[in-house]
Specification:
Structural class: mainly beta
Strand content: over 45%
Oligomer: single chain
CATH superfamily: Autotransporter beta-domain
Number of strands: 20
Order of helices and strands: EHEEEEHEEEEEEEEEEEEEEE
Largest sheet: 12 strands, antiparallel, barrel
CATH class: Mainly Beta
Radius of gyration: 20 Å
Number of domains: 1
Number of helices: 2
Low-confidence stretches: 1-43
């Protein structure tokens, strides 16, 4: 049985949300939202607008992980929700490095790595087939730029352009196994609007569109033995994929100076995966319908710059709440450690 894990991709900061973290990046850092600096003396709030670029000559390095949690859901073509018979056990990690070229332009690179890539089956009929350990290793590299074209005390407006390179293993892995890569080269456009209605509170909107610029090719495999057969098949994405979020983030320094290093956030996110068509010999995978999934999440973080340490730590938890045509929508937990260097 071939399961499509649509909601657990690692995708990054300057790119498109489904590129580093498919449901959007954290958008928080130790940079002051007022003066775009790294100094403790000008520290104002732990919350940073999602569309804000890095200061000139500042490097941000992040180590991020995303893990799936038990309790996946299935959404059929009518949007009916049921408990999924498949639970992915996936752990992804990524190294993200971005650099402030100017005060308005940042560029970034993400190197993802799939640490664990397993499936477990709750349906006895499926479990009889077998539980499978998928391929691990390097994923699809991502690069991107972000341009902040409007910035004042209340607003940030930015646009980003990014790309994903199909460097992760995919084509030589049997179709019944999970893979580190997606097989497609893709480009995307990201738009951000951030608004600060009151001190310490940032309301952020992000939307991005992606299009595949190449086909993906993969080996056929049998259902029971999961063995490679001679034939391979080509898959094409039809149309645009898109994702985004609406978020409210609050720096607790606005409530008390004793809480100056802390922030909390809540988010609604959405992801639309374009329809896929292939020339597979297996009629089950000749067409993959477009899928739409909605999520809600909450997170909290600690900004070390409040204590003269250029570090930040965040935890973010997300659950699917609605969707269509998604056989496996998973709960996820993200952990991100960030560090900053002025050169």
């Amino acid at each position: 049985m071939k399961a499509t894990i649509r909601s657990v991709s690692l995708v990054g900061s300057l790119l498109i949300a489904p590129l580093l973290f498919a449901e959007g990046e954290t958008g928080t850092s130790v940079i002051s939202s007022e003066d775009n600096s790294l100094s403790q003396e000008t520290f104002s709030s732990a919350v940073i607008p999602d569309g804000q670029t890095l200061p000139r000559n500042v490097i941000r390095a992040r180590v991020a992980t995303r893990s799936t949690l038990a309790g996946s859901k299935t959404y059929d073509e009518n949007g009916t929700e049921t408990a999924s018979s498949i639970d992915p056990d996936i752990l992804g990690a990524a190294l993200l490095v971005d650099f402030g070229i100017t005060e308005q332009v940042s560029a970034g690179l993400m190197v993802p790595y799939r640490v664990r890539n397993n499936l477990s089956f709750n349906d006895p009929k499926i479990a009889a087939v077998s539980e499978k350990t998928g391929k691990t290793g390097l994923g699809d590299l991502e690069i991107g730029v972000l341009y902040n074209f409007l910035r004042n005390d209340m607003w940030r407006l930015s646009a980003g352009l990014g790309g994903r390179l199909a460097t992760g293993a995919y084509s030589d892995i049997p179709g019944a196994y999970l893979t580190p890569g997606k097989g497609f080269n893709e480009i995307g456009l990201r738009l951000n609007a951030d608004f600060q209605p009151v001190y310490g509170l940032w309301v952020s909107l992000q939307h991005q569109e992606e299009i595949a610029v190449s086909s993906a090719e993969r080996k056929e495999s049998t259902l029971n033995q999961h063995e490679v057969v001679a034939a391979s098949y080509k898959t094409d994405k039809k149309g645009l994929s898109r994702n985004g979020f609406a978020q409210a983030a609050y720096g607790l320094r606005a409530a008390s100076s004793h809480l100056k290093a802390l922030y909390v956030k809540g988010r609604y996110a959405y992801a639309y995966d374009a329809k896929e068509e292939s020339n597979s010999l297996n009629p089950r995978i000749n067409e993959k319908k477009a899928a739409f999934t909605q999520f809600v999440g909450a997170g909290a973080g600690l900004d070390g710059r409040a204590y003269n340490m250029p570090l930040a730590l965040e935890a973010y938890y997300q659950v699917p709440v609605a969707g269509t045509n998604n056989p496996v929508a998973s709960k996820t937990l993200d952990l991100t450690l960030s560090s900053y260097i002025q050169i």
